[in-house]
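Morning run. Coffee first, then this:
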Amino acid sequence: MRIKLPDKVHKIIEILQAAGYEAYAVGGCVRDSVLGREPNDWDITTSAKPEETKALFPRTIDTGIQHGTVTIMMDREGFEVTTYRIDGEYEDSRHPKEVIFTASLREDLKRRDFTVNAMAYNEQDGLVDIFGGMRDMEEGVIRCVGDAGERFTEDALRMLRAVRFSAQLGYRIEESTAKAMKKLAPALRKISAERIQAELVKLVVSSHPDYLRIAYETGITKEILPEFDLCMETPQNNPHHCYNVGEHILHSMLEIEADKVLRLGMLFHDIGKPQTMTVDEEGITHNKRHPVVGQEMTRNILRRLKFDNDTIDKVSKLVLYHDQRIPLTDVGVRRAINRMGEDIFPMILAVNRADIRAQSDYQREEKLRKLAYIEKTYTEICKRKEAVSLKDLAVNGSDLIALGIQPGRQIGETLRELLELVLENPELNQKEELLKRCRR
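And here it is:
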């Protein structure tokens, strides 16, 4: 098999080889190249020790030199070059107590997580596949290199990475690998929230976000997202639904584009249902106020997982507003845009569509027709540039002060009254008209 290496990667490998060292592209870049995908970055492994690597290149950065990694700068582009190594004993489910450099490529590949990530390549030797990565790719399997229990004990995050790779590639997880995940999942408690967040986001925006189900079945979500486990165990005996809460969430994630905020919005949109479920006399389940409860839960979960404030704000708003009824009138849509926010409203429409498509067939066409009307109305409002927020008003605070209104609370109240007026009657959003009403 021949892989087209980027010129700079080929040059780095050639320089190392010319100096008498072995060097290969390794890991995910090789896997993605075999799959015909464009690698995000290129990692290089070599028999040269860090000091020997640094001596061959004019511009290097000590990225992780204690672990054998040096970043080589080529025209402002960085490439990580790591010495073949053997990891010592792991004490914290993440870091080896010591790193031992080795001259053996086999020993270096043996310490890697999964067979599909344990292949190396250079143009001299071609593809080096000691542990059957190509076979597992052909069969669509995620399998640990060597003993799965050892690999997961070394770094517990690898269990979540297994699910993430499974979701990205559409592969199943090999039986002994999955068995070890079920046994060792509690070790994820030792992993930092930041690392878990990064893997969870990659899973959520993958081609198969519903593979989060695998994380539930192997006990991973019990450790990192126990609120989701409750959803998987909460039924929905309601004509609008054909799945339990968790399965509905998984199906809804498939119905929306692979955007981080939108996919997280679907993951959490019904997270408050287990806490709000009631059953009426006919055995029908209801979940009143689940968006309000869910919004607070979402904020707490995202904070726990160390998400940034912007993501927390947007996702929690999607949860709060996803079930709100929008009147089928121009005024109703303008008021909804004002209430939800101009940045959030189009996301809400996408969330609503995904939510409907993951429900039962009951009234589905009617729901989609109503949503299509709201989307059309929203588009027309935007095209006409009608005022939906204070910044859209034809007057501002300075105009009101010029009329003699004292700065402070009265300015704000007056502007809000004017906005109420133009939300009802957008044609009145003319500077002279609004000032005339203020004079009265």
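The CA atoms of residues 85 and 101 lie 4 Å apart. Good start to the day.
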